[in-house]
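User: Modeling request: complex.
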Amino acid sequence: MNLAFFIDALITVVGVTTPILLAATGELVVEKSGVLNLGLEGMMLIGAVTGFAVTLNYGPDLGDWAPWFGVLAAALAGAASSMLFAVLVLTLGSNQVATGLALAIFGIGLSSLIGAGYVGMIVPSFDSVFPDRLASDPLWRVVFSYSPLVYFALIMVFAVGWFLNRTRAGLILRAVGENDLSAHSIGYPVIAIRYAAIAFGGALAGIGGAYFSMVITPMWAEQMTAGRGWIALALVVFSGWRAGRLLAGAYFFGVLMTLELYAKASGFSFLPSQFWAAMPYIAAVVALAVISAREVAGSEAPACLGRPFLPNS
Amino acid sequence: MNIEAPLRLKLAGVSKSFPGVRANDNVNLNVKPGEVHALLGENGAGKSTLVKMIYGILAPDEGEIVFDGSPTRISNPRAARRLGIGMVFQHFSLFEAMTVLENIALGLDARLSPRELLAEFTRVLEAYHLKLDPRRVVSTLSVGERQRIEIVRALLLDPKLLIMDEPTSVLTPQEVEQLFETLRKLATNGCSILYISHKLHEIVALCDTATILRGGKVVAHCDPKRETSRSMAEMMIGANLKEIAKPTSRSFGASKLSAQGLNLPKPSEFGVALQDVALEVRAGEIFGVAGVAGNGQNELLSAMSGETLAASPEAITLVGRQVGRLGVTERRTLGLCAVPEERNGHAAVGEFSLTDNGALTGRDRMEMVRFGLIDPGKATHYAAEVIGAYTVKATGPGALAGSLSGGNLQKFIMGREILQQPEALVVCQPTWGVDAGAAAAIHQAIVDLAARGSAVMVISQDLDELLTLCDTIAVINLGRLSAPMKVGEVSIEEIGLLMGGVHGDPAATVEMTEALHAHPA
Amino acid sequence: MRIRLEKRLTPSRFMQIATPIASVLLTMLLGAIIFQLIGFDGPRAIYETFITPVVASYKWQDVMTKAAPLIIIALGLSLGNQAKIWNIGAEGQYIIGALAGAGVAFALPNAQGFWVLSLMIAAGIVGGMAWAAIPAFLKIRYRVSEVLSTLMLVYVALQVLNYLVSGPWKDPNGHNFPQTPPFTPAQLLPHAIAGTDIPPGLIVAIVLTLVFWLLATRSVYGFSVRTVGAAPHAARYGGFDASRTVWSTLLISGGMAGLAGILEASSQLGQINLGFPSGYGFTAIIVSFLGRLHPVGVFLAGLILAVTYVGGQVAQTVVHVPSATAGIFQAMMLFFILASDILVRYRVRILRDAPRPATAEAVA
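Assistant: Request completed. Predicted assembly structure:
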């Protein structure tokens, strides 16, 4: 194995990590506010198909800007679909597990419906952010050759970490997830804050989905997120609800998913390729067990996670 | 005090209704600047609803709130704080996993930098001689310290009116004295205090005036210094107080329920470990366990009822049988019934019918089960029997437990256990949050059960309740139970000291206090 | 005018029954509008999806065949959901159950007699249970949320299936398709009860509905499950062990999913291939909620969801809606039933604006 191979592998890792990192970063904020949105997979797919469709349809008019509009549309679509969940869970007090699941199923169906006409087409993707000299440098491409969404994802993790731990708004958001009744009695608008958190989570999930259809392939295929939304959910638990560990955990899963790609292409034939395909999921289960066993119960987990809040009942 | 100064707070004809309840009906109330004003009433009299409207958590249906002379509509707590209204909640509005300083910051609307906040915090602590470590995580603090956070939070606003909702229910008598110090000082500085309580001696000790609520209506304004506890109690309850009929000459039979060397580790991060607990309750005896909240009362109840198993069978003995390793159902079959403190969600399931709640504990002793199936007829019959025998106000056995008032549900729960004719009954906070009528009925039922030869153990934070009800009393502090004392031979001061943790061995107590409050590494 | 929610003193029986029906009707109405808007013949799509399978008798067997696995899986899930144990990986248990049963079949290629099938079915149940035992163990021992672990294991099960049908169990005479050899006649359930169109799976579903009805509404066990779900502390106080509930509900729901899997493999397909996972495990979650976790409700909801499966295919060929249509309708039904849940517990009051005191100012 030479350096070029190693760098290629690293670039692949960064690529496959980005969508789950985006989705998990959004979900981290949602869960910190005390809401469990299991619908990541659905929101990602809706984002994927919307981003793709908008880029394709407006590409000729917008030229280089088309992918950016696509991503914006994906974010809006993700946020819009998350509002469906939010209304049920926050305003109508429905069960969060079941509602999240409904959103996942709905997203899978809706994206297939919208995407039926787009199968097999290809969209133009982003231009490189950095000059070609850097982006195709044999060594420095490991830093400079990515889609802008990769850098965006990294910025978002740090921004969210800073927001949660260093800002007053972040403190209030955590307080709402920690004890909604107390936050309510002090006078914070619990429901409104949760709506905002869910919308943010939906937007990032949408962008994460768009990464599949606009950067990785770049084309639309039914259920192309292939369960990564669920991995992102596990990643949030795995991170212990901390942004720093979320980033590290995302790359851990990214490495495992890269192994799967490489196993299909070559190498690692001592184990069947299905083993490598199952690996991220097995690892997720094992990681959850290790994390849960080691940590004192609920150290960073929001105490109100998943509990409905109906103050006037 | 200048009589001519405008009133700090004036309520005129304030009313508020909830489905099926008129919580406040045409309430009028005046609070002068610098006055300590008691709001007195039974549980359910509408005190909490009233102050929630003053603090902007609820909106009144009718009426007017006048603050410092100008009519205002307080739409949320933030608006209340802007006016200078602070509130210390009965159930604290704290965030367990966050630090003291973060909790303080959340209670303030001003955007202060951490350093400014810390300076302000220190200033208030010094001004009122309070002690609190700003960096500690709330979950590691004692109840008294937690209350101090709430108070500091309110004091940082430089409040003109401070609302205290049942502040002393979780404090030792000594801590109560300390709190009163702080409040008197505040009042001297011109802050009005609206003090909610049903503890009459506190009101006599602290307050300048009192407003008494009953059934949502103001029944009297009075000067507590000119009233007796009894006269205020009668205004509060609206009837003459009923005495508990307790046989004067009492003899106790053989030991029915006892614990020996009962040790249990902390059930959770926030729990208390039981250490070497020993007790004995004889037939016909009512044994009281006093203590400040959070000193192992719930853990003791779980250990006795079988929800938590002891390490060895001999730790707990029930009518001559060693039951330390037997579970709830087995102990119940042998005649040990229990009533935990929390009604909704522990002693009863709010979203279940009374029939189902009857079957929850009564299914075996009342023979409702055949071939693994519950006989619905028998279950309904038993629930109806309890409702009838204890005059529970409910639409019938099909009513949801959660739809009953606190007092009625508690009567149902107590009745459900007592009608099972237990050899021994362990109850925790039998009359917590229950109106006086229901409390009297529950007390009478406990006395009658003991008179029939059962052993009864009452765990309560209400010292008055224990002193009227019990024959023997012991104090629990940090999971240790004191030696038993005969009621009538022991002074309140003595019990108070034990509640504060002065056992025979003060060194050990200090050590344990430190261990309990140590920072997690 | 303001809308106010008032908590009911007792949950409304009427709403418990009316809301699932309303959910189905609303889904039809909204579905028709949406499909009309996006350029299909909306009313026709709805008619073909929801009505054709009910009125066209030649579709009935199809509906019953699809309803059977849905009902069987959903019965198990409903029990767990009552205890607030969320097994959302029934699809995985369904796959592993089928594989376990198939494994027995391939180990006994020449055996004859009904006991072969019995053994296969037993293996199917055990396989599903074993797959569900992993999340149960992880939940009890390491407090891992079963929501995530059951789901992750679906993807692992898919890869196990993929590996077996394209590797060790691949049919040597299968033209290199990823599929197992066909079961022998002794390993196959009949397609229908003799003399009727009723598929045997539906008989199993009917019997199990009755069993679960007794279990859930009358037995001490069912009572314990409900209590654990409603109030864990009260359950412990009443002498019910939460760990045992976790174990038993996950094992029962896993076993039911496994049973559905092997019944499907040994009656419908007669082999296992890559197309075996059909989403029944996920749809059963919708069935369970639409049936309000009540066994009889689950039975009816299973029939309705089966109708949308069959009708979805009809609409696909007749109105040319995409294959995802049925999934969207199913998700819409779940949304509606969850949204209307609040009507069971609350009463909606529409209030005229009450006169406010003169000092009132606009709410910020």
